[in-house]
Design brief:
By secondary structure, the chain is an alpha/beta fold. Helices cover 39% and strands 17% of the residues. The structure holds pyridoxal-5'-phosphate.
Amino acid sequence: MSHLIHRQLRHTPPVADGGSGLYLRDSEGRLYLDASGGAAVSSLGHGHPDVLAAMQAQIGKLAYAHTAFFTSEVAEDLALRLAQDAPGDLDHVYLTSGGSEAIETALKLARQYFVERGEPRRSVFIARRQSYHGNTLGALALGGNEWRRRHFEPLLMKVARVAPCYEYRDRRPGQDVHEYTAGLLRELEDVILETGPERVIGFCAEPVVGATGGAIPPTPGYLRGVRALCDKYGILFIADEVMCGMGRTGTLYAVEQEGVLPDLVTLGKGLGAGYAPIGAVLARQHIVECLRAGSGAFQHGHTYTGHPIAAAAALAVQKVIRRDCLLGAVTVRGGVLRRMLRDAFGGHPHVGDIRGRGLLLGMELVQDRENKHAFDPDLKLHMAIREQAMACGLIVYPMGGTIDGRRGDHILLAPPFTVTEKDLGEIVSRLQDALERALASVRC
Ligand code: PLP
């Protein structure tokens, strides 16, 4: 019996025993092609020598110093690199141990910013109904995914909700995409006005949605419209790039492709690429300057903030991405994978949509392509896909759960940026097998 509390309490997963490049190996010697990098984490694959060398060098030099007393050269270097490569004046970096902690940090930075400005009545965040921003209680309250929240109500904060930008499901037949986008922005403005703009802190969204919808990019102009509304009402725009950031969509930050500058950006997953638990919040000048000129302190802190080994891993990841021109590779290989998915599944009766950006791609599964009806949630098709994929030696990230009152099954693909065309062919061929087996298993 395992003494670990696993996600599935009636089932102990296989023991991961080694990893090299695109492959993970379990303790029985079985190999798995990691086509989702866990959950869009392992952007450089497993066992990358440059990252390991940087971490080893850092361990030899300094493993830990509490940030109440010290900073470290490596954390400073990482912050400088992130700030230099970020758009606009996103020049200030707070390092965390992961994505949820980055979200909590962003929420607190935003709240303290308005308190320091003498606007303590601002206490409401707005987020989308179909959203996931992490599993700590603040982040869980921010996210709208009912399935993840269901055991924890009432949650810590009340959050005002708007519809997700989910063109495949929500754009009406014949409706122009600009009209659809304008409707979403009208709803956001209505919610700001109903709440009272003087009570709103900010709006938080993933620029490209990852785990709650299977790689959903925004419609053209949606995020620019969000930015304009935030400016109009003096509220903050928080871009959650925990999954879609750090090159996953072909630019270091997904918002770069939208021509939009958020006030706060959260990072996680690909920042440490799985080599160390690390996340970050990037903040614009005006936020940090306001705190500096006010109380002079950010009322926050975690024991492992700015951990030197994690910072060394993240800095090495950044250097490899730049040295090996991996952002361009993401765009090219993402295009190849998307074409392969279209060729393999474009006419499949149960694949409703193939979408995404860069190497963050998703497929939405439907009972019926015509009316887009989802599969019966009790069938747990996404779990069957995960099981069958693993039996085929493939890791894909399957998702189910309640989405905006509806249930849907999705598959997320997020292979390492170093994936080759041959690997992509293998991923698609194993996925074909796994999907057919999973569909057969839920039918009987
Ligand atoms: N935000 C987004 C968009 C995520 O996808 C996730 C994790 O999946 C998180 C936040 C939380 O990150 P973590 O699991 O590192 O706490």
